[in-house]
Amino acid sequence: MRSSRRSLAAVLATAALVTAACGTDTPTDASAGGGPVTLVWWHNGTTDPLKSVWDKAAADYHRAHPDVTIKVQPIQNEDFTTKVPLALQSDSPPDIYQQWGGGDEGSQIQSGKVADITAQTSPWVGPLGEFAKNWQVGGKQYGVPYEKHVVGFWYRKDLFTAAGITTPPSTMEELNTDVGKLRAHGVAPIAVGGKDRWPDAFYWAYFAIRACSPQALQTAVQTLKLEDPCWVTAGRNLQAFLATKPFQAGFNGTPAQQGAGSSAGLVANGKAAMELQGDWNPGTMSALTEDKKLNDKLGWFPFPAVAGGAGDPAAVLGGGDGFSCTTKAATACAGFLQYLTSEPVQRQIASSGAGLPVNPTAASALTDPSLKSALEYTSKAPYLQMYFDRAFPTNVGSALNEAIANLFAGKGSPETIVQAVNEAGTGGR
To answer: Which of 37, 96, 391, 396 is deepest in the core (most CB within 10 A)?
Structure first.
């Protein structure tokens, strides 16, 4: 089963990263000859529900494959940015690690430690559809997704009602009006985890998707240059939105997911009305509050339409979570990845509320109405743009996030964001 939407991320990951894959050889796999093997597994499921899903998956796989032991090492999401590059420079990287695909993956394979698992995955990766190509570089599979993700607004229905908001906003003008109503009601309209920077980037990215044509988006990721005037327009639209002061006090120092005082925690505990985040947010929030009925209070709506842009107002920002294998035990690792994408595990992911399953046969296991809404909207979207900090090579994505964070902090300008990307991309891939 394949979605009818066209994924720009798939095009970019396969076409724009060919250069990064040139000259990469597939190292010898020490596990290919059989025998007991221990796989060190780095994942970002540090809290339930995903932590329990992964613990069970590792234990169940070992029972079915006694020669394969999975050593599970949960790692805080934000730590992957530094830990993975260092690990790939070492002599003992993890056997399996969290992988978001795109240009980030293209940067990592140049270490020579990331395994080409095309041969191992080709017999079974097909049902995952075009989405799995986001983990390809130069037509070779260097990772496999286990979840799809879409970014939208998660909101408290009870706080909207209390502020006199009867329906979620569908245009930027309506969102600005609702921000005023929520502020007048005495609640932070929107929470954002500015300390971690990547949540800030969601806003710039959506303004870019609304302002820029699909061709302009594709060209930018292929060339590493933001040359179309729409990129400056996106920054100016973001600036205008920031001027409405939609966020909680001290948002630049607020973490996204760590503790009750994080942006997710503020929404979970009723101190903020909404947050622009991925579909993993309900699972994240559930660990940050004692409110056992939180999910009943949550709703989801897509990023509003922005007047005057060349982008499709129904296009979505997203990506996915996946895993890559390193070269020491690639065959055993690929076998485990096949298990993680199998229907039983995928149904556990869906029913737990941890995210949107990548295996289409597991979609019926989703029980959360908001997650169902997010999946339905995404399946009808004209295209999905991969997060820019993942679509770009690592250094370019980092420069982009830094420049956007500066704009949120009142420094820089729409033009300096464009300049930061263009300068970072000058050296190529």
So the answer is: 391
